[in-house]
């Protein structure tokens, strides 16, 4: 088992886990920091009557609604297939979406600092918030699917009938999505060094689980 874990740790699958961790821990924090620096967002968090934690929770809550709607309309979690990555139209489309969204965030951040940005601060806030929701949902979705496929073997559902197995699979995916959403909720407020340590620990933990179930 020790040799199996070491071989997994230095295999290409660990690179996938590391990329997953990078997006989950660093990209979300980068996006959230841009959002917080927008004039209108900053003023909301600095209001005397505002509880920052409750406001942050309220801003994160739509992610649950998006996940529920996406699952109800398109069964996105249960029927989504990221693999193979190169030929997946979902991955290609949303990779372009991520790049365009980050460029848009950088443009908004720059424009918001200018004098003209004061006139459009509410519009800039709304556009930025929609981009944040899109990126956060996509990153959490990616982490959920990667974890389900690589840390939970399909064999744990083999003893159940298909409808029961499908329902259990939905519960597992839903629990993972909520777990990662809560993780992002706290990670975006962490400092750099704890984020680095968490990234490494998360990658190693996934590699360890993979070595147990798939080797």
TrEMBL record:
<feature type="transmembrane region" description="Helical">
    <location>
        <begin position="168"/>
        <end position="189"/>
    </location>
</feature>
<feature type="transmembrane region" description="Helical">
    <location>
        <begin position="53"/>
        <end position="70"/>
    </location>
</feature>
<keyword id="KW-0812">Transmembrane</keyword>
<keyword id="KW-0472">Membrane</keyword>
<feature type="transmembrane region" description="Helical">
    <location>
        <begin position="90"/>
        <end position="108"/>
    </location>
</feature>
<feature type="transmembrane region" description="Helical">
    <location>
        <begin position="196"/>
        <end position="214"/>
    </location>
</feature>
<keyword id="KW-1133">Transmembrane helix</keyword>
<feature type="transmembrane region" description="Helical">
    <location>
        <begin position="120"/>
        <end position="148"/>
    </location>
</feature>
<feature type="transmembrane region" description="Helical">
    <location>
        <begin position="6"/>
        <end position="32"/>
    </location>
</feature>
<protein>
    <submittedName>
        <fullName>Uncharacterized protein</fullName>
    </submittedName>
</protein>
């Amino acid at each position: 088992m020790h040799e199996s874990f070491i071989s997994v740790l230095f295999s290409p699958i660990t690179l996938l886990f590391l990329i997953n961790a990078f997006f989950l821990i660093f990209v979300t924090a980068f996006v959230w920091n841009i959002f917080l620096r927008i004039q209108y967002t900053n003023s909301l968090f600095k209001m005397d009557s505002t509880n920052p934690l409750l406001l942050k929770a309220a801003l994160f809550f739509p992610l649950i609604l998006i996940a529920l709607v996406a699952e109800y309309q398109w069964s996105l979690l249960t029927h989504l297939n990221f693999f193979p990555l190169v030929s997946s139209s979902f991955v290609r489309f949303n990779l372009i979406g991520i790049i365009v969204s980050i460029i848009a965030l950088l443009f908004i951040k720059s424009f918001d600092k200018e004098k003209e940005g004061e006139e459009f601060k509410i519009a800039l806030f709304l556009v930025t918030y929609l981009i944040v929701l899109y990126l956060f949902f996509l990153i959490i979705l990616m982490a959920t699917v990667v974890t389900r496929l690589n840390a939970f073997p399909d064999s744990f559902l083999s003893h159940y009938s298909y409808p029961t197995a499908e329902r259990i699979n939905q519960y597992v995916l839903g629990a993972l999505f909520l777990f990662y959403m809560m993780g992002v909720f706290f990670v975006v407020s962490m400092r750099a060094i704890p984020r680095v340590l968490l990234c490494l620990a998360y990658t190693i933990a996934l590699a360890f689980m993979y070595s147990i179930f798939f080797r």
